[in-house]
Amino acid sequence: MRWQNTIKVSFRSILKNRMRSFLTSLGIIIGVAAVIIMVAIGEGAQKEIRDNIQTLGANLLMVFPAARNVGGVSQGWGSFNRLTMEDANVLERQARLVQGISPMIRVRAQVIGGGVNWSTTISGVSVSYLLIRDWGIAEGEFFTERDILSRNKVAVIGKTVADNLFPDQDPVGQRIRVNNTPMKIIGLLKEKGKDSRGQDQDDVLLSPSTTVLYRFRDGRFIDMIYASAVSPLMINAAQEEMGRILRDAHKINTGESDDFTVFNQSELIETLSATTRTLTLLLGAIAGVSLIVGGIGIMNIMLVSVTERTREIGIRMSIGARESDVMTQFLTEAVTLSMSGGLIGILVSLVGSRILTQMTQIKTLVNPSIVLVAVVFSAAVGIFFGFYPARKAAALHPIDALRYE
Amino acid sequence: MPPVIRIQNLVKTYLMGDIEVHALKGVNLTVEKGEYLAVMGASGSGKSTLMNLIGCLDHPTSGEYYLDGINVNELSRNRYADIRNQKIGFVFQGFNLLARTSALENVELPIFYDRVHNIKDPRAKALAALEKVGLADRMHHEPNQLSGGQQQRVAIARALVNNPSIVLADEPTGNLDSNTSIEVMEIFQKLNAQGITILMVTHENDISRYARRIVEMRDGLVIRDHPVNARRSAEEDLQALKAAAAESLS
């Protein structure tokens, strides 16, 4: 039979039982919509993480102390803090592929000022820190190389700190006490927002690295080193260069494991999105189960349809329909049911994910490829679950089918 | 030119559970082109089985069957379907039209399963077939909007649309009243006069007398095969009926 007629016949028989066809497709509609929305939520989360990490700064590289390997026994993450100010200085002197190096020493501290107090993180950094983090000064100024050399007690504060300590006043020029050490606020940072873990990046007080290291810590080890590659293309090369310099500085022989780790931003993104990707897959798989349930619904209705139309099958066979004609007809019908369910499901998911985003702030990202996958999958469901009923119809004996009451 | 149908020693045995039913026990039959046969017999005589075998709806247990000179016993199921499409036109007792499908579309159906010819305008061809049975004006009606006689005429048009070698009619008047039966017989006689070969199964004596030749069956065998004496003309019978009806009115 010509394919146009096959399609026409399947549409007609689907439209003959509107309610039944709709309920049958509903399984597929819900399945497809669920898969797309679930995956959209997962991908939305992934995109958010990526965007947030990008706010860390341009071409960011980070050096962390790593697990030490003593006699073949790994001592675990951060088991031995081996990063020092000297490491940062060595990198500053020798690294050619980075445009800024900053040590990072973090101390949790109580800040008193403006008659109130506020607990925040004191970060000891170098003058390159703003460049590395792609940050800027809103008011006042940042500290200088001189402040670092002389361990000056100056501070640049984030918006959150300013809002809490000096809600009605200009914070720049104010005096504060940090863990009983008097300091002077010389600048206010631009607002940066939350990071990938939802932490407020504006709840921070920046001070010269030396000030924090020697006045708030014992002066030995720093927490990590920030660096910025000269260009996005140079990130990997810079990462390698930094590793080489640090290995030399730490006198690590070839074959021995590093006692530090250089991370770049894409690795960080990779690590974080691996988790969400697993989650996305899980959500998609759970939703996929409903698609299979929908397919079983199609199979059920197709079996009923074959029985109801036994006589029609007999008539068609008596006027020359081959088994393959009958088979194709019922398969087309099953696929038409599942595909139209799939298409409606896509529409539902597009509207649904938008509503979801508006109502719950959950970010969703509908990927065109998942839509394509949904269409292909719903067609596959139709073929798979339509096959048995179609086979059953085609295997009917014309005489029995004609006699069927 | 070979006969349309040549059957030699055709046997059909069914298995009903453990019991063998010998529906046909060795039938011989030859039908030439242009004949109009009535196959008669009581129920269980094997006439329907013979019809199904001639119609290529079923394979015989043994024996030979040549349709247009082709030994169809040896053909695959797919070729069987093609033979039904190309060489056989079925007319059933219960009409067997597709419900909720217009007369025209019902008649078009065999054209869509035609794998041999690529017919450019199936609609025109179906309409021509409907015209032959005088139902062109009802082409958009669905079966439930047509009378029994009209439905059977649509079925006849469907049987004719692919120009078959033979029209097989299984109790074509079984569901019709006597007037309508004669109307259907009139169409058959007209078609036969145009050279179309017809094989009709019936158990009604007066219906069989519209054919040219009667084959009587009993217990799976042909017991008599003779030309029709005093053949009836459906056209004349209809005119007589009309005249009688007009008389009773006046």
Tell me the greatest interface: A-B, 22 and 25 residues
Spatial shape of chain A: elongated
Number of domains of chain B: 1
Distance between the termini of chain A: 26 Å
How many strands, what sense, and barrel or not for the largest sheet of chain A?
6 strands, mixed, barrel
Order of helices and strands of chain A: HHEEEHEEHEHEHEEEHEHEHHHHH
Q: Quickly count the helices of chain A.
A: 13
The CATH architecture classification of chain B is 3-Layer(aba) Sandwich
What would the average pLDDT of chain B be, to the nearest integer? 93
Give a verbal description of the structure:
The complex is a heterodimer of chains A (405) and B (250). Chain A has two domains: 3-51 and 271-403, no CATH class; 83-249, no CATH class. In chain A, 55% of the residues lie in helices and 18% in strands. Chain A has helices at 3-16, 18-54, 85-94, 129-133, 145-149, 159-165, 209-215, 235-249, 265-308, 310-318, 323-360, 368-394, 398-403, and strands spanning 60-65, 69-70, 73-74, 98-113, 116-125, 137-140, 154-157, 175-178, 181-189, 204-208, 224-229, 260-264. In chain A, a hairpin with a 2-residue loop joins strand 2 and strand 3. In chain A, helix 1 (3-16) packs across helix 11. The longest helix of chain A has 44 residues, at 265-308. The mean pLDDT of chain A is 87. Chain B has a single domain (35-51, 76-249), classed as Rossmann fold, CATH 3.40.50. Chain B contains eight helices and ten strands. In chain B, a hairpin with a 2-residue loop joins strand 1 (5-16) and strand 2 (19-31). In chain B, helix 3 (103-112) packs across helix 4 (122-132), helix 4 crosses helix 5 (148-160) and helix 6 (178-193) packs antiparallel against helix 8. Classes of the chains: A alpha+beta (405), B alpha/beta (250). At the A-B interface, helix 10, helix 11 and helix 13 of A face helix 2 and helix 3 of B.
